[in-house]
Amino acid sequence: MKLTVVLPVITDAFTEEVRREVGAWVSPGTEVEVRRIARGTASIESEYDEALAGPGILDAVGEAAADGADAVFVSCFGDPGVQAAREIVDIPVVGGFEPAVLTSLALGERTGVITVLPNVLPMLHGLVRRYALTGRVGPIRVVDIPVLDLDAGDRLVDALAEQARAAVAAREADVIVLGCTGMLGVAAALQERLAAEGPFVPVVDPTGAAIMWLESQVRLGVRPSRTTYLPPRPKDRIA
Amino acid sequence: MKLTVVLPVITDAFTEEVRREVGAWVSPGTEVEVRRIARGTASIESEYDEALAGPGILDAVGEAAADGADAVFVSCFGDPGVQAAREIVDIPVVGGFEPAVLTSLALGERTGVITVLPNVLPMLHGLVRRYALTGRVGPIRVVDIPVLDLDAGDRLVDALAEQARAAVAAREADVIVLGCTGMLGVAAALQERLAAEGPFVPVVDPTGAAIMWLESQVRLGVRPSRTTYLPPRPKDRIA
Amino acid sequence: MKLTVVLPVITDAFTEEVRREVGAWVSPGTEVEVRRIARGTASIESEYDEALAGPGILDAVGEAAADGADAVFVSCFGDPGVQAAREIVDIPVVGGFEPAVLTSLALGERTGVITVLPNVLPMLHGLVRRYALTGRVGPIRVVDIPVLDLDAGDRLVDALAEQARAAVAAREADVIVLGCTGMLGVAAALQERLAAEGPFVPVVDPTGAAIMWLESQVRLGVRPSRTTYLPPRPKDRIA
Amino acid sequence: MKLTVVLPVITDAFTEEVRREVGAWVSPGTEVEVRRIARGTASIESEYDEALAGPGILDAVGEAAADGADAVFVSCFGDPGVQAAREIVDIPVVGGFEPAVLTSLALGERTGVITVLPNVLPMLHGLVRRYALTGRVGPIRVVDIPVLDLDAGDRLVDALAEQARAAVAAREADVIVLGCTGMLGVAAALQERLAAEGPFVPVVDPTGAAIMWLESQVRLGVRPSRTTYLPPRPKDRIA
Amino acid sequence: MKLTVVLPVITDAFTEEVRREVGAWVSPGTEVEVRRIARGTASIESEYDEALAGPGILDAVGEAAADGADAVFVSCFGDPGVQAAREIVDIPVVGGFEPAVLTSLALGERTGVITVLPNVLPMLHGLVRRYALTGRVGPIRVVDIPVLDLDAGDRLVDALAEQARAAVAAREADVIVLGCTGMLGVAAALQERLAAEGPFVPVVDPTGAAIMWLESQVRLGVRPSRTTYLPPRPKDRIA
Amino acid sequence: MKLTVVLPVITDAFTEEVRREVGAWVSPGTEVEVRRIARGTASIESEYDEALAGPGILDAVGEAAADGADAVFVSCFGDPGVQAAREIVDIPVVGGFEPAVLTSLALGERTGVITVLPNVLPMLHGLVRRYALTGRVGPIRVVDIPVLDLDAGDRLVDALAEQARAAVAAREADVIVLGCTGMLGVAAALQERLAAEGPFVPVVDPTGAAIMWLESQVRLGVRPSRTTYLPPRPKDRIA
Hints:
6 copies of one chain form a homohexamer.
Chain A: E1 2-7, H1 15-25, E2 31-36, E3 40-41, H2 47-66, E4 71-74, H3 82-88, E5 93-94, H4 97-104, E6 111-115, H5 121-130, E7 141-142, H6 154-169, E8 175-178, H7 187-197, E9 203-204, H8 206-220, E10 237-238
Parallel strand pairs in A: 1-2, 1-4, 4-5, 6-7, 6-8, 8-9
């Protein structure tokens, strides 16, 4: 199968790293393509950034489908453009939130998300409510590191571990979900760190979860429902 | 005060009618300005249309604030771009959903929204959940008339009355909210029609409700919270 | 329009202050009348006080409507007698809770109410549940000052600021609602105080919000639904 | 123990029947006293009636406690004055709703309440929400018979059976709660009637449930919490 | 009436104490029988223990009914086997959770459960959600004492009082429910201890509550609904 | 990886078919083992059957882990023994409900489950509440065919299609989940049938979903949290 990753940012700063990371998660038979968007922002850290990225994401998803993609991962934890994209293509599309959080629900009683900045908390809490998952997902925490500084190595793992420990201690979380798809390659290290200090607490990487999710949907032969995602009616549009 | 209406469509088909309608709702001292957007779609009837209109709406809201607007009404029931707009300006901004539905909650036990097409139902149900109002807002109904055909006069009132009667009979609704800001000038006629046939059921016009809401916010001296709507961080953006 | 304020207390201690305060909120064309009740208590700070005030409130609302009022504000945050009053008159009636809390919902993600005494917490939490708003309204806080001591000037603002800061810091609140209609004339000062110390957090005055709400309902041409508020059947009554 | 029934109506039309009925439910050692109220209405079928009855109910409960009652049953399904009464006396007090509905929750998955008139539906649905039981209690149904006509014998059982059958068939109910304390002496007949026609569906009589509840509370040595029901502060009151 | 207590453990360590305790709670006319199970575990402190005890509990309940029991109390707070038991017998069956927690709901706004070990928290939180009582039951607390060490006398009351005080102070609880049926004979002491230090907070003993509940169900003439608890279909079974 | 399927029934009637079906779903590198249980029932169609199967399921899961399984699928839609099993082994364990329903949540707004018999409805509705998914999962429907008659070929697809169509028409469902792991090999046919008659509605097979889920968990390097699933304490147990 052919899996397209839509990077909803206007620079190539993450392209290679994402390609490598996704390449490491996919099954042998899966071909990976990474597309960044032409219009939008350098990173998504607000409702404003997300709205600006919308048309570019939809362009990229539409082109990916036209080019034969079997599934699309919009690589951002806020699921930007994902509902809209499902209206216009006939293949599975997910962002970072749904696969990671739904995966976490079968791993423990309460899910604790740790994201980048306070700016995105209302957006993410809004997703929790929109997806009707308030009964299982606790208050969301932040490491207070901007997306463009996430290549912080140990400092990021330290900050995540501090928040994860606090969430577990406060009984807010039994499972940790990394709340930004830019937190690449740290889930295993964080999981190990936590297990070294206390009971085992699984850590879900949103990129890995999204890849598993899309491969699973393709293998199961399912794609989004057309009674939820109706095709947009023809009309004048200026993009 | 100066109130700007952002019409999130790319044509001037509605501009004059909206200006007239809004002009009829405002208080004596309120000056009205109507701006349509430069990029987007001819009408908003899907998540896709809404996403395409996002950057244009934010441009228009930002310009309105720069031009001295005291409050902005994004004239679409799906509240497109409203959360993002609150991040970038220091004045009240509302769409059609919040003022109309919140107003309805003090008028009866259950609110019944009637909108245009099935395409927007998941988007509107998503707003009900996002705003955590599922305990009071019933299933949303449609007249199955596209936005661009809403100048249907009696046919529209007939279709609305049929759905409103059904919703009341099924105990889904005690108050009716018109679920599209394009349903201009029919709320009073519908309310009268329903009252002629049975017990009084109030009908809330989303344009009227939004105008009252914004004038009220300005008079109360309040505007959106900066702990929910943090200003976007500076970064590269291509719109 | 003619707006009647029903003061649900048996003394005239608040009458002049309320008349002045409401007079400052209304639109130019609105005539204000203040009526206190004949039977009830000196202040409402318990379910017991609220129940004792019930018949007096209903008398006053009925008389106001008979005397040509266009809308009635029952000036108490617990909304005493409000549902019952809607059954017996054909004009908009609100208390303090509904307009203030519903207004707050469009200003931020979470609403924090600050009221007078712990005695009224179960009553107010009961309203939050009755109105199905638990998803947006946090735990309610108190300043621990009785209603009759609220003319405390700076001490009241100090106590409110302390609770508001704590609620914001604990991420319980993005918007503050003053939870007693006796907290007159302090909303603006509190909002300013908070803004001087941190991000802007709106403060909603329940009296101001109620006035806006009633004027809006009259201008929108709506009043409570007769499928929720059915007229009481004729029968023997001894008041 | 001494159990006082407060009949929240101003006539003696029900007094003897209630005394007989309650007498049949109590344990050997329980002494029953029935008090009607001096101020209020002939029956409670609206929020208005309930508010008018409030002071009279509180007078009666206070007097009962002063006269040595060990527990008080306010014989009305809407629980009028019950929360307020718990603030002023140190003994268990219940109305009709809480004991019957809570009892029903251990008898089946969903509870179906059948009450008298549509007028009381918003009040009862309001209680379901106030007590946070919406997840288990279905839509409430009516027989459309006023309280004062409930001595309808077979006609009442017929009407109840019709609504109960419909509720069960629609999967709204697995347990039936009679939603008016004036529906005396029909629960067993209704339960038998339903069992003769289909699977066994329990029918909970609110008077019987309240008596069991109060005797149980006394035997368990518990009474309402003083952190929920704080004693009203001293102040001027005119009743 | 004849009331059977099923002790879901494989030793007789508790039999005499439970017989004495239950004997002290029942009405004069009630005959008590205590049966322990033949297969299972020495105490129930995990989902694993609960699952192992299932067949033994069902054997015991079935035998009790065959021997003429009028009601059965499965003496464990996790309600193990209770739903299944209702499918196979025609008499009331309860565990410890339902009667105690439902009783508590009419005593105060929020219920605080205090149980033995963290191991059972997810199971008990799962019951709160399964019974749809999340709106009233706070976070559950533990004394961190295993069931087999509960005969700790003062140490148990000390530990319970510490947790109860903390729950009340944090506004998590207005009523305390002892969350293990092995906490025998301490409810009254705990209630007294709390009342000596602050406002009255009722403490509900699950054994006492269950006995009252079952006697009440028998006197009310009700038993579990056959539309919720359908009789298992005949088939091969190896126990 | 080695994946063990625990068939929670006491006959080999399904063993070969399940082995074949699971074999068709797994990835090339996955080795499949099917174990049936020694004690339990011929099929699971009630809480009673589920409870009887508990110890046998736990035996089988424990043995599978001891024999080197990397993940276990308890092949029953009611998730019997799954929570308990997670307490005793250090590998991923799922039943049929969690993977299928969680998968469905990213495919459409509302999930409609169709199961075998009315007997299991309270158990499945109980799971929906326990997992806190009531906001997305509609009322569950039945085909009214016992598990042992599910090899009905076309008759089963006909019955499923009838219920699926009704659920979609009533706006209860946008995605269909087959609510019994014995409904083998019909998901694709049902999905095709529905798509031939109306808009595309995905159909999720619980066996397929479970296999994808377990392979994904293993590849992600996660397993159940030890703060939710604590290891049972040592004690006497008689199985």
